[in-house]
Structure prediction request, 437 residues.
Amino acid sequence: MKFKLTDSEKKWVWYDVGNSAFTLLVCTIIPIYFNTLAENAGISETDYLAYFGYATSASTLLVALLGPALGTLSDIGGLKKKIFSVMVLVGAAGCIVLSFISSWLWFLLLFVIAKSAYSVSLVIYDSMLGDVTSPERVDEVSSYGYGLGYIGSCLPFVLSLIPVILAMQGMLAQEIAMPIAFIIVAVWWVGFSVPLWKDYRQIHFVDSASHPVKTGAKNLAKVFRELWRDKKILFFLIAFFCYIDGVYTIIDMATAYGQSLGLDTTMLLVALLVTQIVAFPSAILLGKLSRSVKIEIIIGVCIAAYLGISVYAIFLDELYEFWILAVCVGLFQGTIQALSRSYYAKIIPLEKSGEYFGVYDIFGKGAAFTGTLLVSVVTQATNNQNYGVGSLAVMFALGIAFFILAVRCKDSTEKRNALSPCPAAEIAAASGEVSEE
Prediction:
């Protein structure tokens, strides 16, 4: 039976198409521009990679603090769309202003703000998934989001790449090329946000409160207590922290890594474009595979593949090897993100999706703080970029171990639920707890 997106699902997916342009900008043109600013300031290639890693770590740490708080606040009726809109506009405005900055330090500071706003918008966006689709469709809808996002980012990337390449060849001033590239991305991002702004309705929410900030803080504290009791979610989040850490670090630092190896800039950009093209059908096809193959198996295969990719990176020193790395990353990049998102959406309470996806972001995008910091520290300690990227293998190995624990806990819970029709209610009654919903 052919899978067809509903109108609400399509408009939700369009935001993946829009925001992916900024993701690709962060992976490609922003590191190149920063490299130019760093060179002009006399910064070495090794320090250039490390400083960019530190800035990325600062952004993800900030999101780890803001994401849960704003995610919890967004669960209150009527606030989800407002917080989402503010984050999109702040991120897009920061994207444009970045292109006019000539100081490497100020560039990194504004980069932290723009990337943080972008990441928080994704916390809210992910939590909208339960409002736009049903549990039995969530895997494929999430996969379509990532798949179409990857292919949709190619057009603004190519358009923004044209002035950048012309600037590299001395045919256009960099002061003109960069604003053109960054404005294209910002307009694309905001433009594809409009359908979701107009159509989205917050179906699952908690009642509004007279003191929303105070109520949000109480709800967030309650979520962490619930996590400690629900091991299937807790172990999944720990596993997610470990393996997605490596995934996001590779995405954020791929171009910076290639440049630090002295690889040709133009070919690097083309290789990363190929990654996007490969990721498009892979994410959708593996999403369809979830109809007949357990989602846990697909996620496990993706984690193992990334473990192999990180080990392979230790020996990388030629452009063709970077091409192989780019294709391998593309095969699993969209799938591991899409199915992790949908798997999590199915094991959490939907009316608290903002709270739980805020916590998801701590363990997810916030986890990249560890990865980028690890790569930066190992790179500077060994004076070898390959060892820095290769160190991510440890995170993928831990991810596999904790994911196995999470699946076992989930299976155990499902068996108990089959024997007892309402175990949660019995536990609450026995402990004297009363639901607040």
